[in-house]
């Protein structure tokens, strides 16, 4: 019975935090999620939602601290990939953010549009000249004979 009460409390705190994230104040949502961490600090959803709060509160390094353990446990977790990509984007690391948006798009089964938006946003931040450079480099690598590429 106690376990069910804990699970209900955890679910209620997560839902209240989501409401605050969508309609209210992310600082209040973070408080709810801190309480949820006291109940079960190994729940991935709590860590992910707390990461979302920290990104919205302009604390992306703390968000990475929350989602990195989730990704170590499950490197294909789409929500964790999205939070990590957003945190990297806010840190100005647009190229790595782009990588994580693409990974999230590959593994997402629910809402791929949020990853497509992130990809467009990261590509715009990187700029067309850099993207042209990468496209040109891939064309050059295709022209180089395989025997040259195989040499150390």
Task: Write up what this structure looks like.
- The protein has 152 residues and is mostly helical.
- The chain has nine helices and no strands.
- Helix 2 packs antiparallel against helix 3, helix 3 runs antiparallel to helix 4 and helix 5 packs parallel to helix 7.
- The longest helix is centred in the first third of the chain and has 22 residues.
Which keywords apply here?
elongated, 152 residues, 83% helix, mainly alpha, 9 helices
Morphology call: elongated
Helix/strand/pairing class, anyone? mainly alpha
Euclidean distance between termini CA atoms: 63 Å
Helical amount among residues, as a percent range? over 70%
Continuous helix count: 9
**What is the gyration radius calculated from CA atoms?**
19 Å
Order of helices and strands: HHHHHHHHH
> Beta fraction of the residues?
under 5%
| Number of DSSP-assigned strands | 0
Q: Biggest sheet, in brief? A: none
**Uncertain spans, ≥5 residues at pLDDT below 50?**
none
Q: Residue-averaged pLDDT, rounded?
A: 86
